[in-house]
Amino acid sequence: MRTGKLREGLSASGRQDGFALEVYETSLYLSVVFNSPLQTTSILPRLVPSIYLASPGPQPYRLTTILILLLHHLVISFPSQQAYLEQIKYLVPNLLERPSAAYFWISALARSLRTSNFVQFEKLSHPDAFKHLLPSSCPMSSSDGRAAIVFRDLPRNAVHALVSRLRLKARDEAWIIVRNAYRELSSSDETQMWLGKRLFFDNFGFEATVVRFDEWVREKSRDGHLRPKAGVEGRWMICKAR
Questions:
Q1: Can you give the pLDDT at residue 182?
Q2: Rounded to 5 degrees, what angle do the CA atoms 100, 104, 110 make?
Q3: Most buried of 24, 135, 144, 242 (most Cβ within 10 A)?
Q4: In which domain of life is the source organism classified (predicted)?
């Protein structure tokens, strides 16, 4: 689907009806899923607020788009949240209600990162924490059944992809804190579970995979962050950053 050409035509004509809404929403979700942040950044201003405010009829994916906008700014500006804070101030109350479940979730997610509360962030960034905010059906109103199958989970996948990318960025920050606070690690089940919660090993989403503890140890050893403890199997000394 060549949504870029469609967007050019819609922009030239100034069209802001239901069809324009459908094209821009689909283009946005595709840009996120295929990790094209420049495209995402260029599409968002056309949707928010102009087309949403001008387009008549139901807008079942507006909240999804608002969450994508805020997550996008959290990801591309990480660890800064200035752009996110400016956007959420602009969106409330016309496009994002305060209080609401969506406002509470995204605000708590951003706050957990600002305060380096990575245990809380792990809980809030898990799908169970936000699945009730997302639609489950296709954003396309086309009668083509094949399109409905292809795009059925696109909005949900876009949100999952952004949350997964945010977890990847937060993992590096969380490791810095663990690295500075502890002298050594073990391979015990308890330690693996504890570390996995703080470094988000149990990842999810459209593109992410679960992080295996042994692979992570090998990677950090190659990077000079860990070294085997002499004479003790299954334990590693944490090498402090210089």
A1: 93
A2: 145
A3: 24
A4: Eukaryota
| Alpha-carbon dihedral sign for residues 35, 38, 41, 44 | negative
**CA–CA separation, 60 and 205 (whole Å):** 22
235 and 186 Cβ atoms separated by less than 8 Å: yes
Q: What are phi and psi of 112, to 5 degrees?
A: -65, -35
Instruction: For the beta carbon of residue 236, count every other beta carbon within 10 angstroms.
Output: 18
Q: What does the angle CA 57 – CA 62 – CA 63 come to, to the nearest 5 degrees?
A: 140
CA neighbor of 102 nearest in space, from 78, 74, 136, 131: 131
Contact between 155 and 135 under an 8 Å Cβ cutoff? The reply is yes
Contact 120, 126 (CB under 8 A): no
Rounded Cα gap, residues 124 and 77, in angstroms:
19
* Angle formed at CA 165 by CA 164 and CA 166, multiple of 5 degrees: 90
Torsion, Cα of 159, 161, 165, 171 (10° steps): 90
For the chain, the distance separating the N- and C-terminal CA atoms, rounded to the nearest angstrom, is 50
Reported as a single tens digit per residue, the pLDDT across 53-97 is: 888 888 999 999 999 999 999 999 999 999 999 999 999 998 999
> What distance in Å separates the CA atoms of residue 169 and residue 208, rounded to the nearest whole number?
12
Q: Tell me how crowded residue 145 is: count the other CB atoms within 10 A of its CB.
A: 8
Phi, psi (rounded to 5 degrees) for 18 = -60, -35
The residues facing 184 across adjacent strands are 237
217, amino acid identity: V
139: exposed, middle or buried (Cβ count in 10 Å: 0-12, 13-18, 19+): buried
